[in-house]
């Protein structure tokens, strides 16, 4: 038994937005792997759930006309893992997906839900931040494109309006074509784990592979929201890519993150591993660039 | 057929297909939900509970508070009744408590038509407390106000101290033995001996069995039936009768399939309250299904311990050993000081030096109650002792295995506490086999040569001695009944409970062995029912195949005799001329088949003149103990910069005497190895120091290893013959967990030079130690 007001299944996207618009006590349910935990804890008393996970408008993994990779928000992590398109274009996301929860959770949990839940630890967030992914959002008032880096507003909070639905995630062709990427999740176990810290790097080297032409470094659980190390990125553009530079970048990144201390792990400990994770991600991302821009 | 065979578990198909019925599957329609209201302070008193509004809440049938239940102090420990009141378990708890001793203590119960109704009603209760700061540490607790002032003057409620000199117990009692230890040092050190002292800390952990503690109770006429997931149905019956104030002959406990336990269900949970409530409610069924969150806090934990060890040694000779142990009991005594006693006697057994001196105490704190959990105090002491041995080996400049071989217990050892003799002994072979399988000699030399980068490898080992059952300290009693079925099979009734360890299958194998009946026709009744099941102390102390196994063997032998007697009567011959074979009853001379067992059973049962059900029943009372031995070897890789240990391989070698079922035995070792890994690396119960509330009482934040974390595990056996076991067998249920954590710890020591004396060896602690030792640079 669940302490909720009710649950219904949206027949289509339009009706879902209408229902949301009219009902301030309605919340969307996709895979339910976060929502039902909250319901069990009695946190959704009085809430009506609207199931959207299976809406056709939220399905599909395609390359659009411009060559961007577009992933339906309702796609489950196991379908991402199984998608030849994602495996080919964005294998780092597959690796992130493989580390999420358990087999059972990946079968139902969706990438849209992972983002919209607003968790700072979302396994899909670090790599999407690093690649400047865009979110396609439909609202009662119309559609808009929201950079993923503007989604998170604090633990469990997003910038989506109540009647807005995330329909798809778009990863720019330019990133997929020219960058190497890597993701590192730090957890205590190999499954059923929320990241103690997550780190993703995307890097583009000069033609000769000598210098950093462009790069991005993103963290999860290192601040109240996922973040990019913007100042560090600006500072090291054009430098010669080397082990010592990657160590320097990792050190610089520590000045931009502020992981909190909790009984799960101290901030000091998270800083310690953040350094090593950033270094390893940069090294791996550069290696992936050299192997042919594996994102 | 019979023993030593990899017979499939008799419950395997029922469990994997979902046909096995557990407590929650048996709940009658219309049962009421018993919902416990837990305190939101850890230490203090409930001053008042206003139930008026809650009682009017929809679906609520009854609310009882701590002020409404009878004042019957009792223990929840699943021990056999002690005829000597001095050895009785400590009665220090009530069904509901106004004196709150832990965060989440049971202060009231709401009986309602559903859990949701009860939850809604709970919000309408008005509860006031007089609260004090929680005392979560044993050292503070001994100096603060007694938590059980009506039973004990102080929180250090039990001591067990002793001095052993040359394997003779020379001093025992509650007075400190520290003076004796000082004298040993004063004598030895001027003669060139050295001293090493170390401190170890073990935090409480939880068994995390899949099925939480669950029970329900209802009445038929004056008869109370309690259906519960328990290891000790007959003990539940006795305690329920006492607390619910009902004649024991009118209390009836049923134990269906149990979904795991590891000792936790050797304590009662809410059975007495369920029985008491059904009496209050005209016999209506009331159930208590603990949630996972409750199970962490309101069932039982493994004792947290602080262990201080000292050794005086000269070269490779350990002259004297001293231990001081603080055992954190938590809020209520449950099994009380038995755990510390079990641990500290094991401390004496493993390395019998000239002097062995120990002081122990159990201390109440405001934590969840600690009690029985696989290993019963010995995982804690084995971690300390085996870590200490490796550190001692470094100090003495010798190989840790050489040091152990020089000082370890030998066959023929006589237990200084009770005179029991070690009659079977395979420890040296457990060591040599483990060394060979892990590649000890090569890796001990090769690994350190490459250990300069962030990835470092190491091998380590640890070992143990472990008793089988509680004899001769305590009663070991098991009864068995075997009935010859009409199809010539046998049904075995025992009071010992299957909780995953495979005992039912082992009993069926023993019966099949003696009766020479095909294995598939022998079944151990999986469900215990105290109205009809023979008496047994229950499942604990790795005793079942040793004690109950003996009952099954002797009962099967009696039944053989009865079968032959029935056949002799029928065929007009003498019993001595007949024998039982796999095809049935034969003449000894000539081997002519007289009748199949089915013929004998049918003829005996339905004979108009002289009907008799062929069955036998007997009780085994065991007075001896048998010591099991074993080793664990770990090969690990440490990522120093990330503070991560990954295990390449675990090798466990056990001497458990004759192995009754090699397949189940191997699985038991695998499970124990994984539990030991969790203890070593990830598991700990964490508490808010301000409130005493447990932070991580869920399976996301309390980290037991997942399938994705399991390394290669090799389980091997050194089969000795234990003369006191029914077929040469001795304990195996608990031992696999014992040596895993110290083996990993010693492998870490080999890999990095850092010895961690606290469990779990989590990344945060490793990083701190690595930074301190200069292995890595501080980054923050």
Overview of the structural elements:
The complex is a heterodimer of chains A (295) and B (780). In chain A, helix 11 packs antiparallel against helix 12. The radius of gyration of chain A is 19 Å and the shape is globular. In chain A, strand 12 and strand 13 form a beta hairpin. The model of chain A has no long low-confidence stretch (mean pLDDT 96). Chain A contains twelve helices and 14 strands. By secondary structure, chain A is an alpha+beta fold. Chain B has 780 residues and is an alpha+beta fold. Helices cover 28% and strands 26% of the residues of chain B. In chain B, helix 10 packs parallel to helix 18 and helix 14 runs parallel beside helix 15. The longest helix of chain B has 28 residues. Chain B is globular and about 90 Å long. Chain B starts with 11 loop residues before the first helix and ends in an 8-residue tail after the last helix. The model of chain B has no long low-confidence stretch (mean pLDDT 97). Classes of the chains: A alpha+beta (295), B alpha+beta (780).
């Amino acid at each position: 038994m669940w302490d909720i007001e009710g649950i219904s299944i949206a027949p289509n996207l339009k009706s879902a937005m209408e229902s949301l618009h009219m009902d301030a006590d309605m919340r969307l349910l996709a895979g339910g792997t976060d929502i039902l935990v909250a319901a069990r804890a009695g946190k959704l008393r009085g809430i009506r759930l609207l199931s959207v996970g299976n809406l056709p408008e939220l399905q599909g993994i395609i390359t659009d006309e411009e060559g961007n990779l577009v992933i339906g928000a309702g796609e489950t992590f196991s379908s991402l893992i199984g998608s030849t398109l994602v495996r080919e274009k964005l294998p780092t996301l597959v690796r992130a997906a493989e580390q999420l929860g358990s087999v059972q959770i990946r079968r139902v949990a969706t990438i849209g839900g992972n983002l919209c839940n607003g968790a700072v630890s979302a396994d899909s967030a670090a790599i999407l931040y690093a690649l400047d992914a865009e979110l396609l959002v439909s609202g009662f008032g119309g559609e808009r494109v929201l950079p993923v880096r503007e989604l998170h507003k604090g633990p469990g909070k997003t910038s989506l309006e109540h009647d807005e639905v995330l329909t798809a995630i778009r990863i720019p062709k330019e990133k997929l074509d020219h960058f190497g990427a890597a993701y590192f999740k730090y957890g205590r176990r190999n499954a059923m784990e929320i990241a103690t810290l997550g780190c993703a790097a995307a890097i583009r080297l000069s033609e000769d592979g000598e210098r950093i032409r462009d790069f991005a470094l993103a963290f999860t659980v290192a601040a109240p929201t996922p973040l990019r190390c913007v100042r560090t990125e600006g500072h090291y553009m054009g430098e010669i890519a080397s082990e010592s530079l990657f160590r320097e970048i990792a050190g610089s990144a520590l000045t931009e993150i502020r992981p909190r201390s909790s009984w799960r792990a101290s901030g000091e400990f998270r800083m310690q591993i953040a350094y090593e994770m950033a270094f390893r991600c940069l090294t791996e991302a550069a290696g992936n660039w050299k192997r042919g821009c594996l994102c | 057929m019979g023993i030593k065979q990899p017979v499939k578990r008799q419950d395997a198909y029922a469990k994997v297909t979902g046909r096995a019925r557990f407590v929650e599957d048996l709940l009658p329609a219309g049962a009421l939900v018993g919902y416990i209201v837990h305190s939101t302070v850890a230490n203090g008193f409930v001053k008042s509970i206003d139930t008026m509004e809650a009682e009017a809440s929809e679906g609520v049938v009854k609310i009882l508070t701590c002020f409404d239940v009878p004042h019957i102090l009792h223990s929840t420990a699943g021990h056999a009744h002690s005829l000597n009141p001095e050895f009785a378990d400590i009665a220090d708890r009530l069904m509901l408590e106004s004196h709150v001793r832990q965060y989440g203590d049971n202060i009231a119960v709401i009986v309602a038509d559903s859990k949701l109704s009860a939850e809604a009603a709970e919000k309408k209760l008005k509860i006031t407390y007089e609260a004090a700061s929680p005392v979560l540490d044993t050292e503070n607790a001994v100096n603060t106000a007694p938590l059980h002032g009506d039973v004990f003057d102080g929180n250090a409620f039990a001591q067990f101290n002793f001095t052993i000199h040359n394997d003779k117990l020379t001093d025992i009692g509650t007075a400190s033995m520290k003076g004796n230890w000082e004298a040993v040092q004063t004598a030895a050190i001027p003669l060139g001996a050295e001293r090493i002292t170390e401190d170890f800390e073990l935090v409480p952990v939880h068994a995390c069995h899949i099925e939480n503690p669950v029970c329900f109770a209802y009445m038929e006429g004056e008869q109370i039936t309690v259906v519960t997931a328990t290891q000790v149905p007959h003990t539940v019956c006795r305690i329920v009768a006492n607390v619910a104030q009902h004649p024991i002959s009118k209390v009836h406990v049923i134990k269906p399939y149990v979904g795991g336990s590891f000792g936790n269900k050797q304590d009662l949970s809410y059975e007495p309250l369920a029985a008491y409530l059904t009496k209050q409610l005209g016999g209506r069924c009331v159930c208590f299904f603990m949630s996972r969150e409750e199970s962490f806090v309101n069932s039982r934990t493994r004792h947290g311990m602080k262990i201080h060890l000292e050794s005086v040694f000269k070269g490779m000779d350990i002259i004297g050993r001293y231990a001081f142990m603080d055992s954190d009991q938590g809020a209520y005594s449950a099994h009380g000081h038995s755990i510390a006693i079990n641990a500290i006697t094991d401390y004496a057994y493993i390395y019998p030096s000239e002097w062995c001196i120990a002081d122990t105490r159990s201390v109440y704190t405001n934590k969840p109650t600690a009690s029985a959990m696989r290993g019963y105090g010995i995982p804690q002491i084995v971690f300390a002792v085996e870590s200490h041995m490796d550190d001692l080996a470094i100090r003495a400049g010798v190989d840790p295995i050489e040091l152990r071989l020089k000082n370890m217990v030998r066959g023929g050892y006589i237990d200084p506490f009770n005179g029991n003799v070690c009659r079977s002994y395979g420890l040296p072979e457990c060591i040599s086999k483990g060394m060979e399988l892990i590649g000890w000699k090569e890796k001990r030399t090769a690994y350190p040569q490459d250990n300069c980068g962030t990835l470092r490898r190491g091998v380590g080992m640890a070992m143990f001695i472990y008793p089988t059952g509680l004899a001769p300290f305590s009663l070991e009693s098991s009864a068995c009944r075997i009935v010859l079925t009409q199809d010539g099979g046998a049904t075995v009734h025992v009071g010992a409970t299957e909780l995953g360890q495979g005992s039912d299958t082992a009993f069926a194998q023993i019966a099949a062995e003696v009766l020479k009946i095909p294995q598939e026709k022998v079944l151990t009744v999986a469900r215990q029912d105290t109205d009809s099941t023979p008496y047994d102390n229950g499942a604990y102390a790795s005793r079942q195949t040793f004690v109950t196994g003996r009952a099954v063997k002797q009962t099967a032998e009696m039944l053989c005799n009865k079968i032959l007697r029935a056949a002799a009567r029928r065929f007009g011959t003498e019993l001595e001329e007949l024998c039982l074979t796999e095809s049935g009853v034969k003449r000894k001379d000539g081997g002519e088949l007289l009748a199949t067992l089915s013929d004998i059973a049918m003829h005996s049962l339905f004979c108009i003149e002289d009907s008799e059900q062929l069955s036998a029943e007997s009780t085994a009372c065991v007075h001896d103990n048998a010591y099991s031995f074993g080793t664990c070897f770990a090969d690990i890789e440490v990522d120093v910069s990330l503070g991560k240990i990954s295990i390449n391989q675990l090798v466990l070698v056990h001497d458990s005497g004759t192995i009754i079922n090699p397949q189940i035995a191997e699985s038991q070792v695998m499970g124990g190895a994984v539990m030991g890994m969790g203890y070593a690396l990830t598991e700990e119960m964490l508490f808010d120091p301000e409130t005493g509330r447990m932070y991580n009482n869920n399976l996301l934040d309390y980290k037991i290893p997942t399938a994705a974390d399991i390394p290669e595990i090799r389980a091997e056996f050194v089969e000795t013959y234990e003369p006191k076991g029914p077929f040469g067998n001795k304990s195996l249920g608990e031992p696999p967990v014992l040596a895993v954590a110290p083996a990993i710890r010693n492998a870490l020591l080999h890999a990095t030079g850092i010895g961690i004396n606290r469990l779990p060896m989590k990344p945060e602690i490793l990083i701190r130690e690595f930074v301190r030792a200069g292995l890595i640079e501080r980054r923050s």
